[in-house]
Amino acid sequence: MAPLTRLTVLAALLGCAMSTMPISDITRCQYTGMDGHMYDLSPLRNGNYMFSADAYEIDSYNIYSPKGSAADPLTYKYYLNVCANVSHAPSACKKTAPILRVNPDGTCTALGNINAAIFDASPGADGVYLSYYHGDPSGGSRVFHYQSSVFFVCDNSTDITGPTFEHQSSCYHSHFRVLTKHACK
Ligand SMILES: *[C@@H]1O[C@H](CO)[C@@H](O)[C@H](O)[C@H]1NC(C)=O
Ligand SMILES: *[C@@H]1O[C@H](CO)[C@@H](O)[C@H](O)[C@H]1NC(C)=O
After folding, report:
1. Which residues are the signal sequence here (predicted)?
2. Nearby residues of 130 by Cβ (< 8 Å), 6 or more positions away
């Protein structure tokens, strides 16, 4: 191989490697995907979103939105921030976190840690999701911690609609959904 060709191949490989390396930047609240498109979620940061959600608690492990159960719903209150801790934690919570949940019994659960946050591309559609890991230990476990993901779904007609709670399942992982134009390409 001629030196020039080798260089061209190397450049192509490097270029390829660079374009397939997604970047999650929580400080800037931005995610750059494999195609080079950058999602800027910073307009939603520090919104301190607060909402209640009725849900059926199947067991402490799984919490579902009200459907498919004969039991009375329980009301959970959520405090959610994007790329930041909740500014003013409710009195039930000893310390803040990016997502706090005040449970029906008045106790507080941190559903993640801002220092264990990462953006990723939504599977199968435009948009991104933000995961917060390493929240409070779950059920006294030293191994499992509460965690959460906020899915930002493209909707050009709104700055933000939601967040809404979807469910908590496998490994105490809560899912939330936000409609926003900032998730559009
Ligand atoms: C978020 O809150 C936690 C718990 O109070 C605190 O230790 C941490 O320093 C905060 N981080 C940021 C970036 O605000
Ligand atoms: C959303 O709006 C932007 C800017 O107007 C446009 O470029 C984009 O195609 C729209 N996306 C969708 C999914 O409608």
Report:
1. 1-19
2. 41, 82, 83, 117, 118, 119, 149, 150, 152
Across 7-16, b (16+ Cβ under 10 Å) vs e yields: eeeeeeeeee
Given a contact cutoff of 8 angstroms between Cβ atoms, the answer to whether 105 and 141 are in contact is no
Among 22-36, 45-59, 85-99, 123-137, name the one with the lowest average pLDDT. 45-59
Q: Which residues line ligand 1 (CB under 6 A)?
A: 85, 95-96, 114
Domain presence at residue 92? yes
Alpha carbon of 165 to ligand 2 centroid (Å): 26
How long a stretch of residues is the chain?
185
Calculate how far, in angstroms, residue 184's C-alpha sits from the geometric centre of ligand 2.
6
Contacts of 185 (CB under 8 A, 6+ apart): 37, 126, 154
Which residues neighbour 43 within 8 Å (Cβ) at sequence distance 6 or greater? 159, 182
**CATH number for position 95:** 2.70.130.10
Q: Which tens digit of pLDDT belongs to each residue from 94-142?
A: 999 999 999 989 999 999 999 999 999 998 888 999 999 999 998 766 7
Q: What value does the CA radius of gyration of the chain take, rounded to a whole number of Å?
A: 19
Q: Tell me how many domains the chain contains.
A: 1
Structural domain includes residue 4: no
